[in-house]
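Aim 2, interim progress: modelling of the copper (II) ion-bound target.
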Amino acid sequence: MKNLIKTTFLGLFITFSSACEAEFTNVDSTDAVATIQAVSDVDIEGQVKFTQPEEAVRIHFKIKNLPPNQKFGTHIHENGDCTGKEAKNAGSHFNPHDHPHGSLKNSMSHAGDLGNIESDENGVIDTVIETNLLSLKEPSPTYIVDRSIVIHAGVDDLTTQPSGSSGTKIGCGVINIH
Ligand SMILES: [Cu+2]
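Predicted structure of the complex, ligand included:
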């Protein structure tokens, strides 16, 4: 009996901690979610949730198993396809207005340029960014459902063309609405 109780507690703990770190439990029907899969040798895991309560799209990253205390370039890529070597089939940065590569803060950049996200000392990212350059509502040239979100191994310098010199892709997820 004692053992049974112990096992049950352990089971609950494991379920809670993994859900807490890298998975969203509160997803509305209008929210989009991308489940991040590892596409190179980093064991990255997690989810990204997209909501659009008003004009701006809120992008909430819950990612784990990253190298600690580092910045990672992240972008919306044009294809909702994470297959191929290092998610090659995700294609280029989502760029509906034919702008150069740049920063999240400059509206004359690729709409998919999300800048950098940073891991903490445990290799976890739990952060929210906002942008007016993307949409979850059809019809819109900046509609991002069925495209992909990609996390790169290196820092996006926000300048180098066409992709900020952010290195190989380590994580990729297709943006879905259920
Ligand atoms: Cu990218």
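The CA atoms of residues 33 and 43 lie 20 Å apart. The pocket of copper (II) ion is lined by residues 75, 77, 93, 150, 152, 163 (CB under 6 Å).
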